[in-house]
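Predict structure. Chain length: 126.
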Amino acid sequence: MSEVTGSDRAIHMIEGYINKYKKIIVFDDRQSDIAKLKDDLFYSTIIENVHKNNLFIGTKNVSDLRNVTYVDISDDEMGELLSIYRLYEYTDKIRLVSSDNQYGTMINYLSVGIMTKEEYFNALLE
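Prediction complete.
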């Protein structure tokens, strides 16, 4: 009998979410700047227009969420999810919000001032 690895669990988890949700937005909120960005999004008026079939994933629990489905995962699960991210980025259903330079994202445009937070949030949720 083969042992189930963390990557196997992450693959099973993300494949279930891909089949169920229109879009999955993963916040690597172990980083304080991303945790703040996530909070800014969740408490903005932009979140009121989010499609109900979107899923948000992060490691920090968020209270008093409006109009969103949020899954709180452990730091270990986040690490496993990030380790398999490249397998699924082609689906266009998964968006990763991370300040890690390994993942080239729009966050760089936000950090250098090319995009405003509102423009970033709209592009993220588009």
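Summary: The chain is about 45% helix and 15% strand.
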